[in-house]
């Protein structure tokens, strides 16, 4: 389960590292892309498959300056149904002018190039992880992705594989104008979007 925690805190279970103000950072222009990172945007998920129910929420909370770069701070919380335990995780995202998405933790300087927003179907690259291993990431285009009772066209799927880890393949799905919509793992667990608020527009599934 390490890859689930390492790569995408938004679906997983705080740190405080904001700049002096909460202005939008110059991390590329994601507002019309597959990853609309704006302060206040949030995504709510429920776990797959049934009957194991976990509810998750990820929100873009503010910007943060880390080691001379500016990131968006995404805080994820999750709760298992019928349990009182809440989990909380923070991951920092930045998008460069090429549409390359990098993530990191506050106290770990290693960035992971988890996505390439303007990539083409079949693109593949490697990125070092904070465990000093390489992840192989493959981009696939998904013409018609079912989320709840709705279908979304032109989605992008980013699949991660670290050869040294057994059954740790993991796929994150992005939808245009919405962002995170689904994730699924090689061990048969995942989550899908139930509600999102993106740039002032609310989506329900």
UniProtKB/TrEMBL annotation:
Alphabetized UniProt keyword annotations: Signal
Signal peptide: 1-19
Full protein name: DUF4595 domain-containing protein
Organism field: Ohtaekwangia koreensis
Lineage: Bacteria, Pseudomonadati, Bacteroidota, Cytophagia, Cytophagales
